[in-house]
User: Which sequence fits this backbone?
């Protein structure tokens, strides 16, 4: 088990192997994302039963909850990659961390906007400065700060190490987001789904979980595509990338 | 693990622990300010400042809603221990109803009355279609889990 993990670690640590294997995985992931997301969103937004008090406005959860979840897991991934960058100096981790930042920022933004759209009819306000909403806004600023830092430092390795520090420090915000609704009085409701139970009607829950799985596949597709671009950019002088380019040019 | 990497790992983990500790202390010191609202019990205990704008949150007590002229309305909210009266003139959110969790933003007068200029509805974590709710009520279960609310 440990041997396999170690082998995988070294294999995925090689840009060439990563590029190769993700190239073969991508079509399947795209298919999975489409197969899960399209029906889940059509059913969720159009056909799932309305909620007893909120009516139709609750349907935003089919986008809001997956976006929020990915925003946080994406940041967690970036922080873990940051630790690998700082401790093991792995080049692939640098590229993955860089690829995640703008994608995670987009999902955080989607989460905040859909939340505000739902908040207006349900709560009666677009925004309040409660602990959950504020800590989520801080997450967006962390993502933006990491993107800015990446853009400001030209040398990719130096940029990766600087952003790694920032993303690890910012990771403190993740438990605050998760538990804000329990630690403090907030307007945002506590979690509906936990590891052991759910306060959501089964029909709505299945739709939500399908949509969530679809959004995660979409996230994987986006991160892999961005990482592959980053590999080509950073490895452009290597022989295998050059031969890849000549092949592609000759093919046309 | 080679010693150099081990040392770097210890530094990274040390930084993380230090930052977590600092954040923990800051949020602990600011906990009163991070809370979005006071509960009726906290108001009764005198924790909320008088004659200042505050937010109070609780469940609307069934049967306490009184409509006055035009949009004037007054109702009691409770945290199942103490109650406080809210007076408000304006449009209530769609979700406002008896038993619903709400947050009123306004001036605390005399320790037991809030002159609100904003009322927000707090949605709980339960999501249910209307038919399911009807079925549950028919089976004789309580309408809302008030005790879940704090």
Assistant:
């Amino acid at each position: 088990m440990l041997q396999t993990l170690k082998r995988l670690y070294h294999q995925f640590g090689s840009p060439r192997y990563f590029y190769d294997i993700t190239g073969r995985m991508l079509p399947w992931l795209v298919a999975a994302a489409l197969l899960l997301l399209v029906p889940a969103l059509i059913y969720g937004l159009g056909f799932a039963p309305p909620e007893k008090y909120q009516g139709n406005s609750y349907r935003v959860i089919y986008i809001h909850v997956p976006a929020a979840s990915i925003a946080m897991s994406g940041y967690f991934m970036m922080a873990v990659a940051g630790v690998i960058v700082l401790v093991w100096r792995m080049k692939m981790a640098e590229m993955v961390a860089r690829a995640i930042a703008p994608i995670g920022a987009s999902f955080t933004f989607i989460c905040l906007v859909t939340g505000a759209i739902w908040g207006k009819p349900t709560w009666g306000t677009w925004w309040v400065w409660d602990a959950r909403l504020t800590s989520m806004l801080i997450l967006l600023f962390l993502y933006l700060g990491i993107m800015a830092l990446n853009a400001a430092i030209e040398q990719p390795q130096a940029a990766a190490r600087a952003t790694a520090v920032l993303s690890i420090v910012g990771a403190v915000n993740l438990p605050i987001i998760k538990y804000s609704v329990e630690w403090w009085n907030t307007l945002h409701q506590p979690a509906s789904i936990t590891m052991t139970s759910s306060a959501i009607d089964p029909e709505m829950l299945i739709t939500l979980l399908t949509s969530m799985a679809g959004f995660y596949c979409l996230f994987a597709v986006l991160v892999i595509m961005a990482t592959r671009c980053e590999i080509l950019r950073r490895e452009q002088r290597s022989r295998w990338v050059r031969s890849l380019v000549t092949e592609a040019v000759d093919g046309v | 693990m080679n010693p150099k990497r081990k040392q770097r790992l210890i530094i990274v983990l040390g930084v993380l622990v230090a930052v977590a500790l600092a954040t923990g202390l800051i949020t602990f010191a600011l906990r009163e300010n991070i809370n979005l609202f006071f509960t009726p019990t906290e108001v009764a205990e005198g924790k909320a400042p008088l004659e200042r704008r505050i937010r109070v949150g609780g469940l609307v007590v069934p049967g306490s809603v009184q409509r006055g002229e035009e949009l004037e309305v007054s109702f009691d909210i409770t945290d199942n221990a103490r109650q406080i009266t809210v007076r408000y003139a304006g449009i209530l959110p769609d979700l406002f109803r008896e038993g619903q969790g709400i947050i009123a933003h306004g001036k605390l007068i005399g320790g037991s009355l809030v002159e609100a200029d904003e009322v927000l509805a707090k949605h709980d974590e339960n999501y249910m279609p209307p038919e399911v709710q009807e079925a549950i009520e028919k089976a004789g279960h309580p309408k809302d889990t008030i005790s879940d609310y704090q």
Remarks:
- The first helix of chain B runs from residue 3 to 29.
- The radius of gyration of chain B is 22 Å.
